[in-house]
């Protein structure tokens, strides 16, 4: 886990997906712990499935005083993402992608994104998304990766910092609960068996 400078990171400005208001990242953790889910892009099918997965914890997070916040790297696809109800939390946009850079979320190159997007983890997650009726598109910035950051109340410390190695990587629900020391009955979605007829669509 890379070292995260919460003072520097906290000064980054995000735009509210709901109101358009600009806020400093640190204002979101000032009064409560926060689970930040950094999406690759709003149109990404796998990201939408991951948002739906982490949203299974939302009620437990809320009852424990923890906020769930989704962050995207651009506004493109935000309206469709919001209307789809994929994330049960607040949604923000990091238009400068400064937080992505500060957290070590890599950018793919045109050559490296194809093998990454075709990897088994991505195929498995896409298959699960298909099974749950979650669709996506290929619009917007296809080269940005994402991850997760969990920060304690007041920005005292980083409880979890996860960087995607592959676009299909995500934090298991139990790891999120454990990082926050909360209990949850949420059950992770089961990945289907991946074969050519399922994973190549």
Instruction: Flag low-confidence runs.
Output: 112-116, 191-201
By secondary-structure content and strand pairing, the structural class works out as: alpha/beta
Helix content: 25-40%
Percentage of residues in strands: 15-25%
User: How far apart lie the N and C ends?
Assistant: 34 Å
* Rg measurement, Å: 16 Å
Question: What is the approximate shape?
Answer: globular
Largest sheet: 7 strands, mixed
Number of strands: 7
Mean pLDDT: 82
Helix and strand topology:
Blueprint: H1 6-10, E1 13-16, E2 22-24, H2 25-29, E3 34-38, H3 45-54, H4 58-63, E4 67-72, H5 78-84, E5 90-93, H6 98-102, H7 110-117, H8 120-131, E6 147-151, E7 158-163, H9 173-180, H10 196-199
How is this structure best described in words?
With 201 residues, this protein is an alpha/beta fold. Helix content is 35%, strand content 16%. The chain is built from 10 helices and 7 strands. It has a 7-stranded mixed beta sheet. α3 (45-54) packs across α8 (120-131). The longest helix has 12 residues, at 120-131. The radius of gyration is 16 Å and the shape is globular. It starts with 5 loop residues before the first helix and ends with a helix.
Structure keywords:
single chain, 201 residues, globular, alpha/beta, disordered C terminus
In short:
With 201 residues, the protein is an alpha/beta fold. 35% of the residues lie in helices and 16% in strands.
């Amino acid at each position: 886990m890379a070292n995260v400078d919460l003072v520097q990171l906290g000064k980054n400005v995000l735009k509210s997906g709901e109101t358009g208001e600009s806020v400093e990242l640190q204002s979101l953790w000032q009064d409560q712990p926060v689970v930040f889910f950094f999406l690759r892009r709003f149109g990404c099918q796998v990201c939408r499935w991951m948002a739906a997965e982490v949203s299974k914890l939302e009620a437990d997070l809320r009852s424990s005083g923890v906020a769930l916040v989704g962050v995207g790297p651009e506004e493109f696809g935000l309206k469709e993402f919001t209307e789809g109800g994929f994330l049960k939390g607040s949604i923000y946009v990091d238009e400068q992608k400064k937080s992505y850079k500060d957290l070590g979320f890599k950018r793919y190159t045109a050559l490296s994104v194809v093998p990454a997007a075709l990897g088994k983890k991505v195929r498995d997650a896409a298959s699960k998304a298909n099974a749950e009726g979650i669709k996506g598109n290929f619009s917007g910035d296809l080269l940005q990766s994402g991850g997760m950051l969990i920060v304690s109340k007041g920005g005292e410390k980083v409880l979890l910092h996860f960087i995607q190695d592959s676009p299909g990587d995500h934090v298991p629900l139990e790891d999120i609960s454990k990082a926050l020391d909360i209990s949850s009955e949420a059950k992770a979605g089961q990945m289907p068996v991946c074969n050519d007829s399922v994973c190549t669509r």
